[in-house]
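USER:
Try writing one entry.

ASSISTANT:
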Amino acid sequence: MNNHERSAELTAFELTLIGASLFMFISILASKVAARAGVPALLLFLLIGMLAGSDGLGGIYFDEPQLVQAVGVVALIFILFSGGVSTRWDDIRPVLWSGVSLSTVGVIVTALAVGLFVSEVFNFTLAEGMLLGAIIASTDAAAVLSVLRGKSVRLKGRLRQLLELESGSNDPMAVFLTIGMIALITTPESRPIDLIPLFVLQMMIGAAIGALAGRLMVEAVNRLRLEYDGLYPVLTIAFVLLVYGLTAVINGNGFLAVYLAGLIMGNRKFIHKNSLLHFHDGVAWLMQIVMFLTLGLQLFPSRLPPVVPAGLMIALFLIFVARPLSVFISLAFSGFNVREKAFISWVGLRGAAPIILATFPLLAAVPQASTIFNLIFFIVLTSVLLQGTLIVPVARWLGVYSEAPELPRSPLAFVMDDGNIASDLFECNIAPDAWVVGRQIVDLNLPEDLLVVLIGREGDTIVPRGSTVLQAGDHIMLLAKKELQPEIVRIFSAQRPPADLFEHHE
């Protein structure tokens, strides 16, 4: 190879790096625009990838379904782990069984309903229709988390916790159903009843490894005492990849294992917890950007027009029939009312997970795989564009939107390296009818590990003392352990003194 050819290769490599960085910059700016416009950021990520593709302005030819699948699986691993590690057990415990029902029964009902509809109305066999239904049956963690954790989405009760739990835990069922349907189509001697013991085995292995791995990760972080703090994120990355890979190798459900490992780890104490949570949140966003850009590149918009009529009909059936049917059946014995169930039905956002699953039939050479892929892509675009942009209006219309302002979070945090103390600065407001109004701080009988740091009052900042009298509208900054914070917010907003609220913490 002469110097000219070597120089050309180096130039191409450097231009690739520049292009990748520009894509990321554009995606970051797009997320800011999306937040202000009320549009899900992932939709813009997809559109950016489509514009850069062979049918777009960029003209980049990209047709690598195997690479898309690999990138998507890795991205979903870290997105699910981040969702698990940032989820508080106290938040999801009241909705645990409802979430499990949505993640299992709900996915099955959705897959059956869509599969029957597709096979009856369009030129699909029953097996092919069920395959399409299985692929599109799960809500997407990346889509739901990015929308619900936006600053403008505030919901009453436990709706947000349930929707986040569902989106983080229903991918395993969809993956299992998709792979199972592909096996039934490509292996005629296979029987549907054979899937039942396989499903039980995969979920049991995934749950067992996830539960064990979550505890081992905490022990490893606390006991290794690495010389360099920067190695702790590397350690957790290695654990996440190991958990998924090991589970998949022994025929368990790796997605379930990763999510459970994150959930268990996030609800235990370990050193550098705040920094690791922020790190994995950043990794999850990076994975979302890379995943959706790659998916956008894989799509050829010129191939979509033939599937638009069918895709629109299937999308509308999914949104207005299949999803509500699955929600009302799954939550038939829950404490959610009709309005709440209607809203849960609306937030059935589809996203990257169905598109990634749609690459499985392509690689398995399933009949009509290309049509299924294009249909799934169009359905996802319709879901995100229609449902994602109307979440707040629908929540207001159904009366499940909370008008209370979101409590601002302090950018400061306090975490001890021994892992025994994990306190955080946070803020809350004193309601006009709160029982603490007119009382001195010393008379509130607050726990010893709670500190009132500052009080904001009518534009002034007050350094509080025990004799400081709280007033309506005070904006107070407190330092306390995370597990105490929900109770502290209640004690400062309740109309009556909550009886023995902090007794078990003393």
User: Anything to note?
Assistant: The domain at 409-505 is CATH 3.30.70.1450 (Alpha-Beta Plaits).
